[in-house]
Amino acid sequence: MAGHQGHDCDDHDPSFTCRRTQMGVLGVLDLVASSSSAPRPLRRRVPELPVRRFVLSPHSSPPSSRSSSTLAGGSPSVSLPPSSVDGSVDGGHVTDDPLSIDNDSHSDCSSVDVGEPPEAVAPRIGRRPRRTVGRARAESEAVRQEALTDLISAALRRMLGQRARADASVGSGMMAKVMGSSDAPSRFLFCVVGPNAVDLATIWFSPDGLPLCSCWGHSQNVALLSMAGDGSSCWHAMAFQAAVDGMAVHRGEIIATLQVRDDMKPHAIDVTTHKGMAAAAFDGTIYSPVVATKRRDVKCVAVSCRSNPRRCHHAELVKELERLVVANDGVSGASDVSSDDEQPGEQNHHDDEDGDADLQDDELVKIAKERQKRNLVSCIEEDKQGLKWARTAEWATNELAASPFWPEPPAVGGDPVVEQSASMTVLQRMAELGLVWDPSVVLHEVSCTQCGAAKTDNDELRKQAGKLYCDGNSSEPLSVTVGSWICPQKHVVEYDGGNDGLFSLRKTDDSGSMLVFSRAFCDKLVSFVYHSRSSYAAATSFLASLRSCFGLRRQIIVTLGRCFVATLKPTEDVFVCPTCGDDPAYVVIDGQALGFRVKDGFSISRPALHLPSTNLNIDNYAVIRRPSIRAAIRKVLRTGDPLTKTDAEALRDLHEARSSAFPRGRTAAAVNNWRLTRDAAVLFFRFHEWTAVDDLGRGRPSPAVGAGDASVQGGHAAAAAAVAPNDEEPPVGGLGNGPAPASTSLAWDEREGTCHPIFATFKAGGTEWATVRPFLLALLGDPVVNLFVGHPRAPLLALSMHLMKADGLGWRKKAKAANAVGFVANFFARVGPLLDKEPLLRQAVGALLRFAVDVDQAVDDDFQAAAKKAADGGQTETAEFCKRWLNVSSPAEYDKFAAEHPAFKDKDYNSPYVSFEFFGFLKRVRPAIFTPRTTPKRSAGQQPVRGRGRVRRGAQAVKEDAGDRCAKAFPKHSELTAGVFNVVCPHVVTMGFRVMFEAESVADALSVILERFPKLPKVVFYDVACKLDRNGMQRVRTLLSHHKVRFCLDRAHAKGHTCSCVYFPDESLAVTSGVSTQAAEVQHSVSVKFRGHLAYTSPTAFMAHRIYQLSMMNLTASYKIHHPDAKAENEGARLNSYYFNYHNAKCLRPACTCSASALGASVAPLSGVDGGGAPARDQGVKSGEGARTDGGRASDPSDQDEGSGMRE
Q1: What predicted TM-score, i.e. pTM, was given to this entire model?
Q2: For residue 138, what is the enclosing H or E element?
Q3: Which residue intervals are annotated with compositional bias (Basic residues) in the record (predicted)?
Q4: Using only C-alpha atoms, what is the Rg of the chain?
Q5: Is residue 613 a contact partner of residue 624, using CB atoms and an 8 Å limit?
Q6: Please, which residues have CB within 8 angstroms of residue 661's CB and are 6 or more apart in sequence?
Q7: Which end of the chain is more exposed for a tag (fewer CB within 10 A), N or C?
Q8: What is the pLDDT of residues 858-909, one digit of tens each?
Q9: DSSP code of 351?
């Protein structure tokens, strides 16, 4: 029996028995019933019988020639050891059903022979761990590709009726199977390629015999690749190609089986994976995997459907599957839009107890500027000092501490008695041994904090009794003595405590004792407020519950928290994303209603330049110049509502342009406009039929409340019309993905009368119309500025030129260039065969595409001409700004400009307590710009908001031009500031913020981008990017065009916009694929919890706490990036060592001996500069600031901050 003990259980913990033995059930029962405090005695064991064990498998296969690698994924990973002695091969006899790898109940039947027992695993306490959805994978792409190749090879062999390695379906968290019966006209390969729900792929062969893959991981339009005769290049397709190449003998048979045939009808099929149910759909051209665990979770994965993944053709086909059909689909789709509905002023009223008590705002600013700067988190030496102070406080209150350390020895014989020091106590002896501090030593500073003069023996100490509060188990504060002195320059040097691991509040309690706190106590206080998203009032109650004699009032705790946070100075690297670096290519910006109360006498310093608008005519950059025609086209494409007389007359003029005569004797611009209008008419009326100007159609006779029996496209289009603000057109694709509300609008496919859709070529519910409408809407309904910004123009020009040729040869080979914009790629992919049949339509599309490519250069030329004309007239601001800051942008250049410009000279704008903005490592590189705000007139029906604490809505962003249709209501509390404007990277690392004192404006967003980024980001995500783009086009077009900046809506807000599809992120997957556009919303979800706490703070306290909160949020976010293998739950990880090791952080305590310290690292700030903000110009690089400040001088001894604290 002893010989088999190692196979059945863990010798170190007999209470845990291996589940792979015959005693598995007893072991599990014993594990549940056993106590965790002490091991149970060794019990009898039944020896393992010498029987060869097998697992029933539908296929028996030979052992694998290569060892399987254990891959880290979302599914449990199985490591397959080599074959055993008795011939049972672990890799060759595992069940071929992938469902078994996630079911622990099957482990008793496993064929794996256990040589060494697993280590005992203690039961986990608490709730179940979070799902690892969206976490980074540990293995490389090459390893995953190799594993997927094995999976696909096994699937193809089973398809051909050959023996396959069963272990290929387990061990990696991935799966591959051939879908469809053997007599089906076409089959495809379905793969699970990762831990996320969208990590699915469908792979098949194109008509040209090239592999095509529809998956989430790439941005290639598969339908466009198929039409252009090209194949996919993602790693899934490469793995598929490698698997087919490994079976070269059967290549022809594999291609014939997995190749799409012309007679294939659109259909959907259910797929069972080891992670649950999924589906795949064929829309007549391509296959696409669909997430389909439940009806509300249906989401298409195809690139061409990203703009509307829950209501595309693939999704609708999957919803018709039997298991997903319901009688009343009240919630047909889960919404992707996450909004922050909580408004300022609706917080818990008890949060106003965090008022400033007796702490004045000027005093807090003085503390932030003059007191010794402290590390964001404590260093290792501060931790040791804190433990030593806690031990001192505990022993000082013990009765044994005051007893003599040396007891009187008894006299023995005639030996003399050695007299010991009668005054030495136990506490003093512990102090001599270095176990505790000596509380009788006077705490004071050894050098002046203002002039640096050292204390001499002639400088008299003014002693005062104090109380030291620690975070240990002491029930009473430690009695200490605090000293202050006057330096030769008559500066009063009060005790700070930073070098002793203490913080002196420099205020007395009711008994007149100076209040001193350990760093650990202060950290515990602010950490409780931050992590609990609570207030200092709640923290006071919490601390009082821990001790019977707490004795501190709430006002003292509030003052302590405010003062301590004001002295914290995070390193600039905390605001740098480890992935994006100093030069982020993607930036997410958004405003948040997070305000504070403004008091009398409040002032800010935020100098900026006024750049007037160049007043460019936006109509000149549209294919159709007349706004009335564009408005009528948008109405026809979005809804089926009857046209007005004005709409019909405008569309009649467009229809007549098809047969209008050539305008002889006109200017080149007029001729070009005539040609564009004619080509636009050819394109529009190919898909809409003109009847008569009086045939306006009909509307819905009466609103049917709750009616939802419209067609698929019509249902959500009508829903969007019902919720579109200001009676504007609803967006194509619907608003969100929630249930369709009742609407009086007709669906677009229900239009009757003139300009009704032509369904002879394409059916209403087909994929073709879903691609035609966005293409017509973007190209004909709106200006086409910045349609292809950031993409190479040469391939697009080549495509347009080939389309305009008479023979039309070769345009398909150039069609890959259209992948730059989603709706353009979809149009060519689905309508390509029609373009080959109709040369006139093809040439018209080529001409319109050529205009869209060339229009950006026309805008650049017009802007420069307008700026020059304004400069000739005396308004030189715009021309000078664009000329000076086009190629030169650095902190040094900005400092030179600020020293010369009267509006910036001698302004203390570097302090966050003066400018009320903070951007970490992002120094100012260009001057800020602003746009004067216009006060909208109040109509007769609008009444002013009255009463305290009301939330005011309706502060709209000013329309940039007549074609601007998007509106955003910015909530504004009547007694609080408007909020903060955050700049976040896609990895949810906040780079900085700016306080908004008025309603959010796109001018603020544009100013922040220009002011802080030397190289402008490649893509800027903003919830009103359409307005931001037009504002920039009128003021700084030259800079934006030079840096090729693209403005995109974030995905959470794009569904509700009625602007051009140009700004939709999923229409520009070539540059936005895989980018988290909701990063600002994720940051807001955390910051919103601090509304009640920050709303009642002073302006300075608001800035100090906001900087601290963002620093801790960034520290956690970067920790997750640096540790991709860490647990999903990392709240228990202490980030102090990570802060000093990964963020270029130096200890700010001059005399500290920790590994992150450097003597002289903490330099006193120059006048007007505090530790929370950016350093003043020419200040140089100091500890905790990294090496990102350009220029500066070296620090000299006169710049030293406070000296080391001393106990005398």
Answers
A1: 0.77
A2: none
A3: 125-134
A4: 36
A5: no
A6: none
A7: N
A8: 999 999 999 999 999 999 999 999 999 998 888 999 999 999 998 888 888 8
A9: G
